[in-house]
Design goal:
The complex is a heterodimer of chains A (about 100) and B (about 600). Chain A is mainly alpha-helical and about 100 residues long. In chain A, about 60% of the residues lie in helices and about 5% in strands. Chain A has one domain (about 25-95). Chain B is globular and about 80 Å long. Classes of the chains: A mainly alpha (about 100), B mainly alpha (about 600).
Chain lengths: ~100, ~600
């Protein structure tokens, strides 16, 4: 197998970091988290705004709700979900012993 | 990281202190100028001080961060902490269009303008979950680097460079254009000259220190731009509602706007501020959001910021911080729009044209506000008042009756926004040329010194060409920024995402997908823009990615299924970038990035 040149910097190895079975289970759990995030993204980024005309009949913090969701609500969801994602994915890394050394 | 012990260790461990002092110094500087203004120093001098002192500080940071090391030049030595990389990404991301144009767009479009707010934030979700950690693990210098390694060779790399150049160049021209406008307004020099003054500001930041210098100036620029953005609207909110938290209080302003619109006769014809889908139908509204989001996750100058973090874990955290810092500005923009609109609806429309507020006169002189008494009754009607989108943020200090020093602060913020984005874009272009084209394709044996010299010369050349194009004032430049998103999304997104998430993606599939996506997107764009081609399903051409992105995904999939599956080596390579631990197993004789 043609290996990478040693180079001056990053290590490059031919040995996988974990065995194939662990890698497969790790990846299926990582993919699961990815799909969950993608679903939340579709709902917060698109889904709820389709109902904006209806939501505007309600008030939230003094804003029409449909407007509020597009101007602030979805943005807050995005920020919170990314911090949560970073923690969750790090936990998955630790669980399968694939965190960086 | 063990590398922390090298010469930058001191600076890195004192980042908090350094930037706290810097922020305090900037606040003191603004206060001194405020005192000078009260003492009768002319506005012109205050404008000069703001422009030259802030550019001087950026230049100083650029000079102090000069480097002769390749990895410092391309990826800041991969030692930028997640929090600061988030700030740097924030200013890399927010350009003159966000800083000056966004609030104005919201003023004019109401709810529909929120497509930009949503589209320019939600894309970071895609960056975090689909790309940033994996590209960081691979350890690329540039985005085409990844394409070259994953799709075995220089053809895929070259396609990536073409897409990168098309998207980034249209974008950088717009930034230099914005820099020129601000510099000419506050220095009182001609636009063409101002473009080159702005250019000098951009080059001193990036030329000596590459990514390292750009990173630390971008952090400094973020601090200035966010202060400059928040202060005027906080003061305006305090004046109008008595509470200095505009983001919470503008609901009241919206209520009053809607009430005035229903009751005030002169406001006949004013569109609602909260009713959705008045300008964009739902297809265009959601199509635009989709293109902006996917484009965010494909723009090389953003993706390459995540190459600079110490680890994969930091890359993930850093995307979250980036979005947080961007959020601070974006959730404030609708407040600017609402307060400015309330002021216009209350004190401008329906007033005697003879005694309009003073700020209307100031901005009419510059041509950003137009008052035209069409029915000659001496009273200003809604239809007789036109305000340019760019005027909202710039005019807020005068609307709120604040001293000139605040206007200067806003100009410094706009300049920081434009310069920081231009820096990131120029670096992305020059790095693709010097690293991917020159080093990887033309002269793989070039030594370190030669590579850095080539990188710097190319940076200057690209900057001069971009400044020249900007100085000719090409038409429709803001539309071009939106196009850059669709171009990048159609050309790069499927190849990048499928390269990580679908091992079966073949070289032929990815290359075909890039060419088809890019081709469909450009065909629709150019056809509808210049040759009167009818719109497909009524989709506006700023959302041309709506056709390009699916076409690219479909082509990549079909062609991949028709070609033999990638080698075991290549599948091992993909496996190794999916796992944070361990080395990257390169396939097909590609060299690992250093």
């Amino acid at each position: 197998m043609p290996l990478a040149e040693p180079g001056t910097g990053r290590p490059s190895s031919s040995e996988p970091a974990v065995d194939a079975a662990t890698a497969a289970r790790y990846w299926s759990k990582t993919s699961g988290l990815m799909w969950l995030m993608l679903v939340i993204w579709v709902i917060a980024g698109f889904g709820i705004h389709a109902f904006a005309p209806m939501l505007n009949n309600y008030k939230f913090l003094g804003f029409p709700l449909g407007f509020y969701m597009a101007a602030q609500g979805s943005l807050i969801i995005f920020v919170v979900m990314l911090f949560w994602f970073a923690r969750r994915q790090n936990a998955i890394d630790a669980e399968f012993g694939v965190s960086e050394d | 990281m063990s590398e922390n012990s090298s010469q930058k260790g001191d600076f890195l461990s004192n980042l908090g202190k350094v930037y706290t002092w810097y922020t305090g110094g900037f606040a003191a500087f603004v206060l001194v100028l405020a005192v000078l203004e009260q003492m009768g120093v002319p506005n012109r001098i205050i404008g000069y001080l703001f422009v030259f002192l802030t550019i001087g500080v950026y230049a100083l940071i650029g000079y102090l961060s000069r480097t002769a090391q390749v990895s410092e030049y391309y990826v800041a030595g991969r030692r930028v902490p997640a929090f600061y990389n988030g700030m740097a990404t924030g200013s890399d991301w927010m350009s003159a269009a966000s800083f000056i144009g966004m609030a104005g767009t919201l003023y004019l479009l109401g709810f529909d303008g929120l497509a930009f707010v949503l589209g320019w934030t939600g894309g970071y979700v895609l960056v975090a979950i689909l790309l940033a950690p994996y590209l960081r693990k691979f350890g690329a210098y540039t985005v085409p680097d990844f394409l070259g390694a994953r799709y075995g060779g220089n053809f895929a790399r070259f396609c990536g460079v073409i897409v990168l150049m098309s998207a980034s160049f249209t974008y950088v021209v717009a930034q230099i254009f914005g820099t020129g406008i601000i510099a000419s307004r506050f220095l009182g020099i001609s636009f063409e000259l101002a473009v080159f003054v702005g250019l000098a500001g951009i080059l001193v930041c990036s030329m000596l220190g590459g990514m390292r210098a750009v990173t630390w100036t971008q952090v400094a620029q973020y601090i200035i731009l966010i202060i400059a953005y928040l202060i005027p609207v906080v003061l305006l909110s305090a004046k109008v509602t008595g509470v200095p938290i505009p983001q919470l209080m503008y609901g009241q302003a919206i209520d009053q706007i809607e009430m005035l619109r229903a009751t005030k006769e002169a406001l006949a014809g004013a569109p609602s501020h909260i009713t959705p889908f008045q300008t964009y139908d739902p297809l265009n509204f959601f199509g635009l959001i989709f293109c902006l989001m996917v484009g965010t996750a494909s723009l090389p100058h953003i993706l390459m910021r995540y190459f600079t973090t110490p680890s994969v874990r930091d890359a993930r955290k850093s995307v979250a911080w980036s979005l947080f810092f961007i959020f601070l500005l974006y959730f404030t923009a609708p407040a600017y729009a609402a307060f400015a609109k309330l002021e216009v609806f209350t004190n401008v429309i329906g007033s005697q044209i003879a005694d309009l507020p003073n700020w209307v006169r100031i901005w009419s002189d510059i041509g950003l506000v137009r008052v035209n008494d069409a029915n000659a009754d001496g009273i200003l009607q809604f239809r007789e008042f036109v305000i340019n989108a760019d005027a909202i943020v710039l005019a807020t200090p005068e609307i709120a009756g604040l001293p000139y020093v605040i206007a200067g602060l806003v100009a410094a913020g706009g300049l920081a926004a434009a310069l920081s984005t231009a820096d990131g874009l120029l670096l992305a272009i020059a790095n693709a040329l010097s690293h991917d084209i020159y080093y990887r394709m033309i002269d793989p044996n070039a030594n370190t010194k030669r590579r850095l010299v080539v990188a710097r010369i190319l940076l200057i050349c690209v900057a001069i060409v971009a400044a020249y194009v900007a100085s000719t004032r090409p038409a429709g430049i803001l539309a071009m920024v939106a196009w850059a998103f669709s171009i990048a999304a159609s050309g790069l997104f499927p190849a990048l995402v499928m390269g990580v998430w679908w091992k079966r993606t073949t070289t032929a599939g990815a290359v075909a997908g890039m060419i088809v996506g890019y081709g469909v997107c450009l065909f629709y764009l150019i056809g509808t823009q210049y040759y009167g081609m009818p719109l497909w399903f009524g989709v506006r051409n700023i959302s041309c990615g709506l056709f390009g992105i699916p076409a690219a995904f479909l082509t990549t999939w079909v062609v991949s299924m028709m070609t033999p599956e990638p080698s075991k080596d290549m599948q091992d390579f993909v496996e190794s970038i999916r796992t944070p631990r361990g080395g990257v197993r390169m396939a097909g004789g590609e060299k690992a990035p250093e």
